[in-house]
Request: fold
Amino acid sequence: MQRSDLSLTDLHVSTIMKQRVLIIGLGISGMSAAIALEAQGWSPILIERAPTRRKGGYFIGLRNEGKNAARELGIFDTMEKRTPERLRFWDIRKDGSRRRVADLTRETDAPVAVMRGDIEDVLWQAVESRMDIRFDTVPVAIESLPDGVNVSLRHGEEETQEHFDLVIGADGVRSAVRRMVFGPDKSCLHPLGTTLCAFPLSRPVPHCASGDGVMIADTGRTLTIFPLQGKPSTALFSYRQSVQYAAPNEAPLQALQRRFAGLDVHGIVSSALSDLAATNDFLFDSVQMVKIPRWSKGRVVLLGDSAWCLTLYSGMGASAGMMGGLALAKALAAHPDNLDRGLAAFETEMRPFIRRHQRFVRLRAELFVPSTWISLKARRLLWRIMRWSQSRKQRDLSASA
Ligand SMILES: Cc1cc2nc3c(=O)[nH]c(=O)nc-3n(C[C@H](O)[C@H](O)[C@H](O)COP(=O)(O)OP(=O)(O)OC[C@H]3O[C@@H](n4cnc5c(N)ncnc54)[C@H](O)[C@@H]3O)c2cc1C
Reply:
């Protein structure tokens, strides 16, 4: 039967019979799932702890998996792309010397540079006027029943209970849904023994031209500055400390001033820290991978960082969030009468990808923030080999042209 053949009563019934899915978290994973599930006939209700939508964020590189997922969600073409036209990356040493290192945008699977907010902006445009979205709202109790899930929601002082057919916890690495339904943080988090602080800079990097990326690496501490087209660069400080499950309990500025003392090459570190002092748009946390044996329990499923946080070192978290939203919607659509099977099919689809990337996270973290002098040397050598291989490819191309 065509939709136009339905009577008004049929239409009303078909609307109210849509399955209701509560999506907790208005990040990349939550909004991707909302778009994909709505397209499969679900009625998404999104809740977000923050009082308003966040913007900005930090540098994100989208490789083929992320680009393809964004295309499938219908957001890739309208997303701002910020790969600088003239990009050069420099390894700046403590003594002030600098060496040019590989330019990742010349690789075959070259990542496209965006800010987290660029992805969220286009996802938001797709959900904004179509769905029930509630800010300043958090879940306080979740009870999974055979026929649905009862969730107590808190909005300001007010508390209400609602019934949903499915609940998705897309509430990030420090997920409250995971704690409420799957277990305490200590059983799911795998700390890497590093801390990150990421934020947008508000002024040019000293002694650098526009389009210059900077890496200042030392044993146990690294500053990376990613240039963006049409926007100030973003800074990413990362340092090693003892293994911690909790978020750091000191202010980022003081922590970084202490950790990066003696590494202020060309005034780059102090300039970035002055910018940090003037912004509220920063992320400061200890870095955790998330591993749990199953992503769903009854009618509650985790998605994105809350389920599998791949960490910044994988460069795949945003991509996995979009892919996960699509995979979940497709798996549920393939098993319309059996939610358990749909959720199992979602795991079968996503697990190999997540496992593959989690396997290398510790090695990548070691190369990103070397814990020893030997790793620091290995990191420098790797970047130079990559640069050498790029130059050779370019020479071969010019010779054959
Ligand atoms: C510095 C850095 C660099 C990165 N670089 C890359 C990269 O190059 N490529 C890449 O693919 N990925 C990258 N990532 C990873 C990527 O940013 C994340 O994996 C991705 O944004 C996670 O999205 P999410 O929606 O799962 O979680 P989040 O972005 O954490 O969103 C969770 C949302 O849930 C909300 N929330 C939290 N608790 C509650 C609650 N109790 N109730 C209601 N709402 C709640 C939060 O406010 C937030 O809006 C990087 C990450 C970092 C930190």
Remarks:
- Residues 310 and 356 are 10 Å apart (CA to CA).
- The chain has one domain: 13-381.
- The longest helix spans residues 373-400.
